[in-house]
């Protein structure tokens, strides 16, 4: 029989403290207050004091309320019945259908043995040239989408989810606007993808602590599916809310903040989640795409900064386009050598020209005379932005490469590209290169 | 030790435990948390009164107040002996491949395996004889480990002079067999096996003296060896924002550096990066030895999602292994990626200990820890007075926001001999390796003649000035001579500073090739050209660049290479101004 405690000795932020013994670190408890029953998790033990983080928030909790320890840590069901269902951050269904308790697994489990990972070598095709050609997405990659409020990042996530060839999609919403949640649900439904999707949704109006659990729930489920051989795509939006929730708790716990109020273990905490992306040796894979909105569009802000160091590249979404500079897929080298022989040459040369174009644009805006070379670059830049960068472009990789050659041929002579002559001969449109 | 002292847990805060004890504890000693059948390794990091703070190298999930802690009385140590090469360890020297056999996909906590395989048979050849007077680190005999003579040495912890009582005969033995019996001046006899333990946080100092590193450590990366060389026994750091190519650069160095033993410490970084090494090193040939790269490598990996306290230990484990091979007269290279993650591990623990924070909440002892780590590098003269061995340390630094003013970068810059600063601008422009040619520096001597190097550096500097100027006055306002200078600096950048790691030939450039090609490049920089117009000059250099880049992709001194050289020569003569 579990003991019930009736004396809460401290309530600060969303953390309550009770005196109890025999409680294990990370265990769950139920707090019964006038507002209802909420789960809570042990986050610190000090002598006889037990610190609990209350999922529903501490508002309305009285010092005389009942705390009942469940004697187990947080778990989530990993049953196939989860497909098509929607849960909140605490794992409670938010679609008015029954709870699922089969095949429960602990969340935030141990990390994968690096010796059991394999080098990811499978490309995920998205039909977006800025991704497929320039920063190829690879199965088991973890990539954030760095963006700012107002950009169509959720649309981009949804589009990738629809087009990527994966078995299961797991959507984790953190601080999601209710409209955005509906948008995701409707888009997935329209494309008939709802039945292979599991959603853990914490909306902006839900208690902040529940936000903290969303990535762990998503990834624990994803891990189980991947172990069963499924290729899983995890979409998280928005990790900035997750990091802010962590900040809130750590400040409440009087931890010494390291940078702009964020806890010193922000890196480790984010890494523990992102590193769940994996290609198992002999089982499935987990690919993670996560939106990180940059406060003040500042990439040096601790959240995007730490994220960038953890993830295998990043996509910058700005002005409705994926920026070619800064955007990077670290794993692209694993796959783009095997797509088509000219893939790398096109990628490198086009980006270099685009960078030169940006410089010329700067010169132009300062009123300098444009040389004939500058004119070529200006023409190129315009074509590039219009035909390849626009997010509405939806073409296969091969077509995009051909288009790239066409754009270059329209603007430059073959030698001006600096591409190795054998590739030029094979791919330069029209008569043979040089 | 039957009489292990015990303690009782009174606090759990993340991976920090507070433990009440009633006998005595040693600072930094290892203790085990008893959790049912599990024993979780931890380390004492602070003692206050009868309470000790312990960092746990594992998840602290399910630990309760009142649980028992067993102190071991020994410091966190590395196991040293034959069979270390080719291994893949976590930060605590757990072999990951064996762990995978035992526990499958995940790193289950509380499983500790032997770092070495004690069943392997080694062919032992004695070199010491009874009656020899030996000191710690002196040689008793050797076993072949891959291409090396792996010396069995008097354990580094033995103090004073020891006389050899007996040495085991030549033959095949297991690591834990007795190889020799030694006696000290007090008449104590001790047997020596192939295996010894050494506390990782204490430098091994069984050598005669440290000497000044002068010989370059060839990395086969042109911008490093020519412009910012690293010495055998030296230190260097590669700070850079994310996406600037730190890891790619470190991988290139780990593959092509001409060191005997390479130790890669993946400390708090992505697991995927380690996997690349794990899967590729056994396949890649080491041209110097004809064996695969893994044969000369040890990989320590404590990736970002593995417990943070073990991350702190991992760099020490790595450097201890490097020092061990140095003691055999080998040149070892330790690549730590990234020291910032290690510093963050210090910060996390410091925060939990509620220490008064320094800058950006890093602990006040950050600088001394960093310099203590890099100072374990060096070229040493061993006790025999002739043999030299070295540890070279290269640390990647991941400064927050890419800002080099932050504490970890600054503390590192104070103690390293070479600074290879990676720049976001260069990486955005896809100029790799993105080492900034005007901001980086090195205290070591370059492999190329000084006058050539000076000319090249002058050209780069002048080219940058012209570039800046052009942004203000435009191309038409720039004198053609200045413009050509700018084109020359761009030429140098493209054909020499940049190197394609993904090309089988260009990825590694030998010392001879660098000397040869650099001389050729410098001759271009030194040649006066006459051009009618800027467009003509640009066109010329663009074409010259292409011929040169293609030259870089051709194997050194083969037919095509020689032919291409003639093409280059002819191209230069087209526009060279003859006096």
Question: Which percent band covers the strand fraction of chain B?
Answer: 15-25%
Mean pLDDT of chain A: 91
CATH class of the largest domain in chain B: Alpha Beta
Number of helices of chain A: 13
Give the integer mean of the pLDDT values of chain B: 93
How many beta-strand runs of chain B?
Answer: 26
- CATH class bucket of the largest domain in chain A: Alpha Beta
Silhouette of chain A = elongated
**Biggest sheet statistics of chain B:** 10 strands, mixed
Task: Calculate the terminal CA-CA distance of chain A, rounded to whole Å.
Answer: 85 Å
**CATH topology description of the largest domain in chain A:** Rossmann fold
Which stretches of chain B are poorly predicted, pLDDT < 50 over at least 5 residues? none
- Which secondary-structure class do the elements of chain A indicate? alpha/beta
| Number of separate domains of chain A | 3
Provide the CATH superfamily of the largest domain in chain B: P-loop containing nucleotide triphosphate hydrolases
The CATH architecture of the largest domain in chain B would be 3-Layer(aba) Sandwich
- Radius of gyration of chain B, in Å, reads 27 Å
Any idea what the CATH architecture of the largest domain in chain A is?
3-Layer(aba) Sandwich
Spatial shape of chain B: globular
As a whole number of angstroms, the C-alpha radius of gyration of chain A is: 25 Å
Greatest chain-chain contact:
A-B, 82 and 81 residues
Can you describe this structure?
- The complex is a heterodimer of chains A (434) and B (579).
- Chain A is of the alpha/beta class and 434 residues long.
- Chain A has three domains: 4-73, Beta Barrel (Thrombin, subunit H); 76-335, Rossmann fold, CATH 3.40.50.12240; 340-427, no CATH class.
- Chain A has helices spanning 129-132, 153-163, 178-190, 208-227, 239-252, 266-274, 302-310, 332-339, 343-365, 372-389, 397-411, 414-417, 421-427, and strands at residues 4-5, 8-12, 15-19, 27-33, 36-46, 49-54, 66-73, 75-77, 86-87, 104-106, 123-124, 137-138, 142-147, 168-176, 197-203, 231-237, 257-259, 262-263, 278-279, 285-293, 313-318, 321-322, 328-329.
- In chain A, the strands form five sheets. In chain A, strands 9, 13, 14, 15, 16, 19, 20, 21, 22 and 23 form a ten-stranded mixed sheet that branches. A seven-stranded antiparallel sheet of chain A has the order 1-7-4-5-6-3-2, with no helix packed on it.
- In chain A, strand 19 and strand 20 form a beta hairpin.
- In chain A, helix 4 packs across helix 5, helix 6 (266-274) crosses helix 7 and helix 9 (343-365) packs across helix 10 (372-389).
- The mean pLDDT of chain A is 91.
- Chain B is of the alpha+beta class.
- Chain B contains 14 helices and 26 strands.
- In chain B, strands 8, 18, 19, 20, 21, 22, 23, 24, 25 and 26 form a ten-stranded mixed sheet that branches. In chain B, strands 1-2-5-4-3-6 form a six-stranded antiparallel barrel. A four-stranded antiparallel sheet of chain B has the order 12-11-9-14, with no helix packed on it.
- The longest helix of chain B has 24 residues, at 450-473.
- Chains A and B meet through strand 5, strand 17, helix 6, helix 7 and helix 9 of A and strand 1, helix 1, helix 4, helix 6 and helix 13 of B.
- Strand 5 of chain A pairs antiparallel with strand 1 of chain B, so a sheet runs across the interface.
